Amino acid sequence: MWSVIGKSLSEKYTVVTIDLPGHGKSGVITETHSMELMADVTYQILQHLGIKEMTLVGHSMGGYVALALAEANPETITHLILLNSTSQNDSPDRKKQRERALKFIEREKDMIVSMAINNLFSPEVREKYVLEIEQLKQEALTFPTEGIMAAIRGMKERKDRTYILKEFPKRKTLICGRKDPIIPFSASKTVSKMTQTALKILDGSHMSWIENRDEIVKILHFID
Question: Which of 68, 96, 165, 220 is the most exposed place for a label (fewest CB within 10 A)?
Fold first, then answer.
């Protein structure tokens, strides 16, 4: 997902993108990929590469992982950027949705993945991004079912880290979509105000890295 944006940023910065456990070429570690586990994996990669400080950008679940890393190793982060993400934990309704996905995904993987990806886009833009949506579905279907389930469990069980975002002493930015069906715009405004985090608003839904790519690049090019 970061290939185009990362290529642009690499003209000015050193860019590191990773496959979180259970995604891409990274294997499944355990039954539940908690945000803490994935944050520790990320930290170990930084240690291996000798990276002491960084601007950390996390999209959606990546934002949950970023906050877990900010809790465990805040000294490594100079600027924390949450893209279409939140510091809050799942609502009861959202947890029920994840439980239903876990219940059916082993025998209905194609349907669950297709539905989940469609729901990342607001209804009015799905036709515009039909090719991108189909590509996302095909990529997601290559991931092991166990990895998808491990990520769903991790997100369902994650704790609220609003206090971590509030207390984070360095730069912090929340980038949200005005029509995001997953992280409501109203929730992003509330978190921004509660935590005194800079808020940048895009006219898109949950997949800003597709819908608002040029704007994301501009924002990240001025992260210093």
Answer: 96
In CATH, the architecture of 3-221 is: 3-Layer(aba) Sandwich (3.40)
Condensed to tens digits (0 to 9), the pLDDT of residues 67-106 reads 999 999 999 999 999 999 999 999 999 999 999 999 999 9
Mean pLDDT of 99-119: 95
Q: Whole-number mean pLDDT of the chain?
A: 95
The 8 Å CB, 24+ separation contacts for 5-11 are 5/209, 5/213, 5/216, 5/217, 5/220, 8/217, 8/221, 9/217, 9/220, 9/221
What is the predicted pLDDT for the residue at 146?
96
HSE toward the beta carbon, residue 28, CA cutoff 13 A: 15
Domain boundary assignment for the chain? 3-221
In the chain, pLDDT over 70 holds for what percent of residues?
99
Residue-wise burial string across 83-102, b where 16 or more C-beta atoms lie within 10 A, e elsewhere: bbbbbbbbeeeeeebbeebe
Say how far residue 87 (Cα) sits from the centre of its chain.
11
| Alpha-helical runs (H) found in the chain | 3-9, 35-49, 61-72, 92-104, 109-118, 130-141, 145-157, 162-167, 185-195, 208-211, 213-221
Structure tokens at 5: 């944006």
